[in-house]
Design brief:
The chain is α+β, with helices and mostly antiparallel strands. The chain has a domain of 88 residues: ApbE-like superfamily (T-fold), CATH 1.10.3980.10. Helices cover 34% and strands 25% of the residues. A nine-stranded mixed β-sheet has the order 1-2-6-7-10-15-16-17-19, sandwiched between helices. A three-stranded antiparallel β-sheet has the order 3-5-4, covered by helices on one side. Strands 8-9-18 form a three-stranded antiparallel β-sheet. Helix 8 runs antiparallel to helix 9 and helix 9 runs antiparallel to helix 10. 45% of the residues are buried.
Length: 351
């Protein structure tokens, strides 16, 4: 039996983002109450987005941020025919000139494709589409169909020269695994340009913060229970950082008792089965956190640890199928697991 979950997921995203905002209000002081805050909610990039800048110019900043998000959606969306990405895909191998934003995001994304040895691959889109994750028409494709599509999955065939993009004929790309993270970075820049030093956004659950809360304390960000419970795995404290999670619970369907989720392993063309059911990345760059949350989910705990030791520059939390938690040492004292997760096996990885 196929389950279409788009409407439910959008509602869940809204409720989750509201809970994030409530969580950030714990311990509110008179100073924070006096600080002007503007809350703005929009729907973009197929998800609910909540913006909460603080400061005298917060209303203008929120409006400018919303406009920036909508501008980027028109560039990055694979389903908007006039977008840069749709034009690249429609060109069937011919070079296409794109905007500076698209070129910058592609450059960053391709760097992470290379660093992750293809665990992140922007050209997986035709496989994702065949599974029905882009349309809601879910199916388990025949293996020969998957293998034929995998012949055109290779990020190394994506050529970026300045603002010109060229992909191999028969290939299609999608920036969905990195676009919201890049957008979060751009919203933070909009806030700064408007003179703000404090704020938080939730772009469909991708949380990013500017500075600290107005009272100087850290933001407290809840990590969703990947097993569908009403509680959280835990809470992580951050300042001026992004907290981005990828999980199988975000988009999935069930057939013959088997759950299939939308995070596809480019090596197999099937939903990733690495033992990980949720991967959270904490770092200074939203684009990096977005890219790595997908990649580490696909890698699994051993490869994820090796990658973190090799590159560093971020912290991570993995929730495994057996209920155990693994997180990097930089989250010690910043991550607090909640029941029942706090009763499970917890491993802290150190260098």
């Amino acid at each position: 039996m196929h389950l279409h979950r788009a409407s439910a997921l959008r509602l869940a995203a809204l409720l989750l983002s509201l809970l994030f905002l409530c969580a950030c209000g714990n311990g509110t002081t008179a100073q924070e109450t006096a600080e002007q805050r503007t809350d703005k909610t929009i729907f973009a990039m197929d998800t609910v987005m909540d913006l909460s800048p603080y400061g005298e110019n917060s209303a203008a900043a929120a409006e400018a941020a919303a406009e920036r998000i909508q501008q980027l959606e028109k560039l990055f969306s694979v389903t908007i025919e006039t977008s840069d990405i749709a034009r690249v895909n429609a060109a069937k191998g011919s070079p296409v000139e794109v905007s500076d934003d698209t070129a910058a995001l592609l450059q960053t994304a391709l760097e992470y494709c290379e660093k992750t040895d293809g665990a992140l691959d922007l050209s997986i889109y035709p496989v994702l589409k065949t599974w029905g994750f882009t349309t809601g028409e879910y199916q388990v494709p025949d293996e020969d169909v998957i293998q034929s599509l995998l012949a055109n999955v290779d990020y190394q065939k994506i050529q970026l020269t300045g603002d010109t993009v060229q992909i191999a004929e028969g290939m299609e790309i999608d920036l969905g695994s990195v676009a919201k993270g890049y957008t979060g970075d751009q919203v933070m820049e909009v806030f700064r340009e408007n003179g703000l030093t404090s704020g938080m956004i939730s772009l469909g659950g991708n949380v990013q913060t500017l500075g600290t809360k107005p009272d100087g304390s850290n933001w407290r960000i809840a990590i969703q229970d990947p097993e569908g419970g009403e509680g959280y795995v835990g809470v992580v404290e951050v300042a001026d950082q992004a907290v981005i999670t990828s999980g199988g619970y975000e988009r999935f369907f069930e057939e013959d008792g088997v759950t299939y989720w939308h995070i596809i392993d480019p090596a197999t063309g099937a939903p990733a089965r690495s033992g990980v059911i949720s991967a959270t990345i904490v770092g200074d760059s939203g684009a990096m956190c977005d890219a790595l949350s997908t990649a580490l989910f696909i890698m699994g705990p051993e490869r994820a640890e090796t990658f973190w030791r090799t590159y560093g520059g971020f912290d991570y939390l993995l929730v495994l199928e057996d209920g155990s938690l693994i997180y990097s040492e930089g989250l010690q004292g910043r991550f607090t697991p909640m029941e029942p997760w706090s009763n499970n096996s917890i491993t802290v990885v150190s260098k």
